Amino acid sequence: MSWEVGDASVSVGDLMSPIFRRWRTVALLVVFSILVAVVRIIIVTPEFEAKARLIVLAPNEAVTDLQTLQLYRNLVPAYQEILSSRRVMVAVLQELKLDWSPSEYRRRVRIEAHEESQTLDVVVRAGSPAESAWIATAAAQVMTRVAADVMQEERLVLLDPAAPPEKPVTPRPVLELVLASVLGLMVGTGVIFALEMFDRRIRDEVAVERRLGLPVLGVIPHIDL
């Protein structure tokens, strides 16, 4: 397969030739990227995510009016805003006695809303499975009390307490090693083509014909004396 670039024809072999010729550069950058990823995996503290689920209850009587049902579904975003508020954050930090700054709290705690099922997830990231599950469940209980105080009605209740997760969400060794390898390969290939662009040496008769536009009448072989 080849492509026409100006008056010259470029084949797949022409594109791959610099990579094969400078394969050590690519290999070096791939190995370097993998080593950086390994160091990161070793030094980064694993973090685990646990999830407690809350549900917005409908009235005790059966709801047959679609407009009323939609109204209660619309409460889910409202509760999401309440649970994400500073008031709730302060209550959770105080009652659970967490030594987190506001920015760390917002990094570790997030609220995910599911309008169709009228549920919300309190997702907590912490340093151990047990800690993340305990904080998620306890925070969800605090949130239901604050939400009841704000909305003047108890419609948000804990549906499922959090369970300790089995695997950390970060670091992910296999994924990070694969990404490091791909990144090293891409950077190495880019470096090689950059070097080729600035390399004005003519290595063979094909390069003579391509760069000078002159036919090759003969080739003097290399002889080791």
Automatic annotation (TrEMBL):
> Which membrane topology term applies here?
Multi-pass membrane protein
Q: Which UniProt keywords apply?
A: Cell membrane, Membrane, Transmembrane, Transmembrane helix
Q: Where in the cell is it found?
A: Cell membrane
Is Zinc-finger among this UniProt entry's keywords? no
- Annotated transmembrane regions: 25-43, 174-195
GO CC annotations, alphabetized = plasma membrane
Question: Domain named Polysaccharide chain length determinant N-terminal: which ranges?
Answer: 10-96
| Any Pfam family matching the protein | Wzz
Membership in a protein family: Belongs to the CpsC/CapA family.
Q: What is this protein called?
A: Capsular polysaccharide biosynthesis protein
Q: What organism does this protein naturally occur in?
A: Thermaerobacter subterraneus DSM 13965
